[in-house]
User: Fold this.
Amino acid sequence: MPRIACYPGTFDPITNGHIDIITRCAKLYDSIIVGVAQNDKKNPLFSFAERMQLTEQVLGAMPNVKVHGFGELTIEFARKHSAQVILRGLRAVSDFDFEFQLAAMNRKMATDVETVFIPASATDAYISSSLVREIAALNGDVSEFVPQVVATALYNKLRGG
Ligand code: ADP
Assistant:
């Protein structure tokens, strides 16, 4: 049976932190299904279509990584793609409470899907999509935190391009 993991998130936008988790996990699993959340209460800067497009562009060269949008429960998304695992990245203790609760709730709803936490690399632990958006909005340089295509998309979006 192929080992399949899904990696759900908002990806508003995808950052080097996300890419690090995906690259490391692509070596552990036969395939990674990246799930871009469609309906987001977070009021994203980028539309669903834009988040999908950027995520696909950035991950397109990775042979065992696929990108799909999803609007259903994460456990349903996992089942739909035959994933046994939901991957989540942990940056700091501040991520832990919510992630632990989420994992427990998902496990309550679906005992056939396991959550696996991956610690952020020391070099990426401070990167978050929200900080990247904020820095870009204030004309800061985000090129160290996101791929060039994402930096350009941020610039265009925030300058109304
Ligand atoms: P969500 O809205 O589901 O939290 P995000 O796109 O913000 O979506 O994050 C998706 C996943 O990636 C989460 O598990 C988050 O903790 C993880 N993540 C985000 N940034 C980093 C980073 N710099 N290093 C490691 N994991 C990260």
Remarks:
- The CA atoms of residues 134 and 140 lie 9 Å apart.
- The pocket of adenosine-5'-diphosphate is lined by residues 9-11, 15, 17-18, 21, 88-89, 91, 95, 120, 124, 127-129 (CB under 6 Å).
- The helical segments are 16-26, 48-59, 74-80, 93-109, 129-137, 148-158.
- The first strand starts at residue 4 and ends at 9.
